[in-house]
Write a structure and sequence with these properties.
alpha/beta; eight-stranded mixed beta sheet; 8 strands; 51% helix
Length: 300
């Protein structure tokens, strides 16, 4: 199948490359020229201007967007809307708020334009391992994406989870759970480091991934980070948050759902910006390992 891809950042470019490897025709654009050129070198078709990308696709078009959530998505839709026609399909694969996705779907539907919200997980490793995807929208719209989803995801790795906004709601909860898991690992390894026994923390991480009930991909990434820098001396324990954790805590409060672990893991990220503990270094290192997120290095 053919589709346009808008936004070639850490995940967008790798998703494009995986689609190209799967034999799809992918037309791309980005604010920067270098990722466009990278995609072209791998068989994609690149355009610097949005209107040229739209014109290069045969109607009814599919456009997949991977850009920061919030106002940038609304700005892009405002630019795209006059260029799109009835039956065209827009996919937001970023970490948008599910309420925004519902609003956008309703507005676009009034003009005959389809909209799917896609919660995408897999980070910088998705190119090789595939992406887990949670899709929200009308069944016919999601079904149209089937060939691309089958290429992007590992077997069984995508699911139509509900109507408009459902994909981004599921991804919001997914990321909140991720916060809690990362916090538990960070606190546990900090306690091991504080013990009077000098543990090899990277070895412990590898050990726990051999049959232990706490084994996980995050633990594998913890082992990688600790093997590269056992004391995590090269980074600060300053941990950012990208919004989904805040939204999830707000939803828990609104719906009266107790979520103490998830709430505290979010608040600990706020606290990390005031101190520099080993546990916070673990969190920062994990984010860098699975998502390629930037870390703050210590001054030398």
């Amino acid at each position: 199948m053919e589709l346009g891809f808008i936004g070639l950042g850490r995940m967008g470019l790798n998703m494009t490359l995986r689609l190209l490897r799967g034999g799809h025709r992918v037309v791309v654009t980005d604010k920067s020229r270098e990722p466009i050129d990278q995609a072209v070198r791998q068989g994609g078709e690149g355009h610097a201007r949005l209107e040229d990308l739209v014109a290069a696709l045969r109607p009814p078009r599919i456009l997949w967007v991977m850009i920061p959530a919030g106002h940038p998505v609304d700005e892009l839709i405002a630019l795209l809307e006059p260029k799109l026609g009835k039956g065209d399909l827009l996919v937001d694969g970023g970490n948008s708020n599910y309420r925004d996705s519902r609003r956008r779907q309703e507005a676009l539907a009034a003009k005959g334009i389809l909209f799917v919200d896609a919660g995408v997980s897999g980070g910088i490793w998705g190119l090789e391992n595939g992406y887990c995807m949670m899709l929200g929208g009308e069944p016919a719209a999601v079904q149209r994406l089937g060939p691309a989803l089958d290429t992007l995801a590992p077997p069984g790795g995508w699911l139509h989870v509900g109507g408009p906004g459902a994909g981004h709601f599921a991804k919001m909860v997914h990321n909140g759970i991720e916060y809690g898991m990362m916090q538990a690992y960070a606190e546990g390894f900090e306690l091991l480091r504080a013990a009077d026994q000098p543990y090899d923390l990277a070895a412990i991480a590898r050990l726990w991934n051999r049959g232990s009930v706490v084994r996980s991909w995050l633990l594998e990434l913890a082992g990688r980070a600790l093997a590269k820098d056992p004391g995590l001396q090269g980074i600060k324990g300053w941990v950012d948050d990208s919004g989904e954790g805040r939204w999830m805590v707000e939803e828990a409060v609104k719906r009266g759902v107790p979520a103490p672990v998830l709430a505290l893991s979010l608040f600990n990220r706020f606290r990390s910006r005031q101190t520099d503990s080993f546990g916070d270094k673990m969190l920062a290192a994990l984010r860098a390992e699975f998502g390629g997120h930037a870390v703050k290095e210590r001054a030398k």
